[in-house]
């Protein structure tokens, strides 16, 4: 396989839609880094949509400059795969 074919294969693989369970797992993992950071101390997330959980995770990560999450492409790219509301 030459470089161009490998590049195409890798790009296509990276853009395959992840399963909802995989997204949920990733977002919950990221949430663990920011769940205790809040100005309003609202942490009951069981009734939140996956989109809301990701948005709140993004917000807290940015406001508090959580280095691990700020350097993660998942923090923004996972939103692409969530249903529009």
Can you give a write-up of this model?
58% of the residues lie in helices and 0% in strands. With 85 residues, the protein is mainly alpha-helical. The protein has one domain (19-81). The chain starts with a helix and ends in an 8-residue tail after the last helix. The mean pLDDT is 90.
Question: How would you sum up this structure in a few lines?
Answer:
The chain is built from five helices and no strands. The protein is mainly α and 85 residues long.
Topology of helices and strands:
Layout: H1 3-14, H2 20-34, H3 50-63, H4 67-70, H5 74-77
Helix pairs in contact: 2-3
Choose one word for the global shape: elongated
* Helix percentage: 55-70%
Question: Can you count the helices?
Answer: 5
Structural class: mainly alpha
Characteristics:
single chain, 85 residues, mainly alpha, 5 helices, elongated
């Amino acid at each position: 396989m030459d470089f161009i074919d490998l590049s195409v294969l890798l790009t296509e693989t990276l853009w395959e839609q992840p399963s909802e369970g995989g997204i949920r797992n990733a977002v919950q993992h990221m949430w663990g880094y920011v769940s205790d950071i809040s100005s309003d101390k609202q942490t009951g997330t069981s009734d939140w949509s996956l989109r809301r959980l990701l948005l709140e995770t993004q917000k807290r990560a940015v406001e508090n400059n959580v280095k691990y999450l700020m350097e993660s492409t998942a923090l923004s790219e996972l939103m692409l795969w969530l249903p529009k509301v």
